[in-house]
Amino acid sequence: MALPAAAGGLAVLFSHPLELTKVRLQLDNELAAKGTPRQYAGFVDCVLQNFRAAGVRGLQRGLSLGVTREVCFNAVRIGLYDPILSASGAVSGRGERAPSARERMAAGFTCGALGGCCVNPIEVLKVRMQAYGGLTGHQHAIPSPAAGLAALVREEGLAGCLRGVGTSTARGVLGPGSQLIAYNELKAAAVGHGADPAAAPTHVSCALASAAVSVACVNPVDVVRTRVYNAPAGLYASGADAARRLLRTEGPLALYKGSLTHYLRLGPHMVLVFGILERLKSMRARSS
């Protein structure tokens, strides 16, 4: 579990500004009628406006929470994949037979769901810190992660820490679960067609393609989760309520707000995660 955690923590140092941009785009025109002018004209405009307002430091707002989230999430999501796959084989009596696509899919979805549950309080604070200082969404004044956690527990209690956990679990299943499955299936297919499993082009192409699969599956749930996490108390009764109100006021295309930024963030991020992970695995193999 240590290697996936380290890979994720290192990768987020580079991808965090895009994550912040994605959050602010997803909150743009929240519950506004279709046709209402947006605060940001798009990805580039959002980055430029945020940079002019607060510089590089502003684009890295909430970075410590981003690193913490990635370390914990990847430790569970990627680190438990092989153990869960092995355990399922022991239960099913698979023996030496290679796991089927269905078994790999079940392991990927399970790991994604577990990871989403484990990091939910961190996710709530991260989204609120990323939204703070932007032009969109409710503004939670959080001077630091410690102060934000104290305020969350004091003002909202356990319910605040578990806010949106159902939506987050669904996101963990649809997004990271689909991406992990896609990466492993694409890599297996590439190797089957003669690609070098240790070559960087294999890792890069499979990571980028798996990120596209993930964004297509998860962006609608991600938009809803971002809004539930950042909303003031009482605005939404649940993730389903947030999705229903979004569709009624903004239309279905709003579910893909920030999707380009999502991919621009996730694609390179997963290239880094899987690239670093493969490198760490090879280093461990040489030292053992």
From TrEMBL:
Solcar repeats mapped onto the chain: 1-87, 99-189, 198-283
Keyword Membrane annotated: yes
Domain of life: Eukaryota
Membrane topology, as annotated: Multi-pass membrane protein
Keyword list, A-Z: Membrane, Repeat, Transmembrane, Transmembrane helix, Transport
Keyword Acetylation on entry: no
Alphabetized InterPro entries for the sequence: MCP_dom_sf (IPR023395), MCP_transmembrane (IPR018108), Mito_Metabolite_Transporter (IPR050391)
UniProt xrefs under Gene3D superfamilies: Mitochondrial carrier domain
CC annotations in GO: membrane
Subcellular location: Membrane
Family (UniProt): Belongs to the mitochondrial carrier (TC 2.A.29) family.
Protein name per the record: Uncharacterized protein
Organism the protein comes from: Emiliania huxleyi (strain CCMP1516)
